[in-house]
Amino acid sequence: MTDIVTDDVAALRRAFTLYPRGVMAVAAQIDGAPVGLAVSAFVSVSLDPPLLALCIDAASRTWPVLSTADTIGVSVLTEDHAWLGRQLASRSRDRFAGADFDETSRGALLLTGAAARFECSTETVFPGGDHLIVLLRVLSLSADPARKPLLWHDSEFRAVAPLTPLP
């Protein structure tokens, strides 16, 4: 292992990718059109009240629009959604093409077939360096533990696999 100073952004980014994370679709219907993005920085925060947090690039052009929604859908992508993870991260194509989302009565978009789906309202937003830390209150949820989540690890999408039992 080589020690690297933390001002080497490429090395820091690479090291951060070595921690596997889930991939979320974050979306809402705004003025009759779907708006959304992919997020891999997600954490549960509190059970009472029910809170989760996302980290979103402060330079995002999508977040300022998405943040105006009354509610926002956060959907945990499954192994079958790797194509959608890339598509939602794209800046040059229709992020929702071929994807099936359900719209809630409050305008949140929730991915059909997701491992877990959360309808949320924005609680608060904190600055976090070059990202925003978005604290969301969970208003409703659905989950299917039989669906395996998509992982982002070492700059690639990966699948969850059980460990081989020790002898």
From TrEMBL:
InterPro entries referenced in this protein's UniProt entry, alphabetically: Flavin_Rdtase-like_dom (IPR002563), NADH-dep_flavin_reductase (IPR050268), Split_barrel_FMN-bd (IPR012349)
SUPFAM superfamilies: FMN-binding split barrel
Transmembrane helix recorded as keyword: no
Domain Flavin reductase like: 16-159
Listed GO MF terms: FMN binding; riboflavin reductase (NADPH) activity
UniProtKB keywords: Oxidoreductase
Similarity section: Belongs to the non-flavoprotein flavin reductase family.
Annotated protein name in UniProt: Flavin reductase (DIM6/NTAB) family NADH-FMN oxidoreductase RutF
Source organism of this protein record: Actinoplanes lutulentus
Lineage of origin: Bacteria, Bacillati, Actinomycetota, Actinomycetes, Micromonosporales
